[in-house]
Amino acid sequence: MRQISEQLSFAVHEVSPYINWIYFFHAWGFQPRFAAIANIHGCDVCRASWLTTFSEEDRSKASEAMQLLKEANRMLDLLDRDYRINSIFKICKANSDGDNLIIEKEPGHSLVFPLLRQQTPKRDKSPFLCLSDFIRPAASGIPDTIGAFASSIDADMEGLYEKDPYKHLLVQTLSDRLAEAATEKMHEYVRKVAWGYAKDEDLTIPELLVEKYRGIRPAVGYPSLPDQSVNFLLDELLEMNRIGITLTENGAMRPHASVTGLMFSHPAAEYFSVGKIGEDQLEDYARRRGKTIEEMRKFLAANLQ
To answer: Could you name the domain of life of the organism this protein comes from (predicted)?
Structure first.
């Protein structure tokens, strides 16, 4: 497959249907059952009926959730006037070499992308997974394909309502959800059109949000891709400053409401947690990353035994 690189820009109203409201309400301290208000569309009678499903003890909390959703939707309408959410992706030839990915950056030039493998013994004795398992080995002589992506809000959104703590927090929590929602919409386009490995996919948004699609989209910082410093490798591939993302010296992204990661199409690809790793893998990973053990210890502190 030839290399494909695209930059997408979405209006807020284009991505807001893809918001996973469970995580928004979680950020405000609500349990998932209260987030169900986001699925109630239509008249006030429907919302009032939803309230009656709660005990008297929980009804006030449910009312708070209802009010928060109203205010969030009002804020989305305001943001829609002036701001856009941006994504960039690249689909590249790739192969695996052990626990490394070899990704074609451009014809004749490849990028080595080291990964981590599970080490903690499992009760069910299932295989110890690494993301490289879902890409064809270089020894096969047949190139495979991988995707890389980044999504981010308009940086100016971060400074909105700084003198109004409530509205400022509302924008922050919505910004996180909008970056994720743009990623969801971008990934749908990649699967069905740009990469096209799932042209006939016909899923509802609720089905997308519970990952009914083929393939996976692990994001940097999540359990299968825990090393934040690989953002520097993704930046080499994507030139993320094209959508306004810059990296700190530790690989953290600015704007904060940004998402980066990889896309795999293998039908058997699944999410997993790397979990705890030993000093042996830390040393091996540091060598493959071209970093000192102490540098990598800082990035992988949560994963060390």
So the answer is: Bacteria
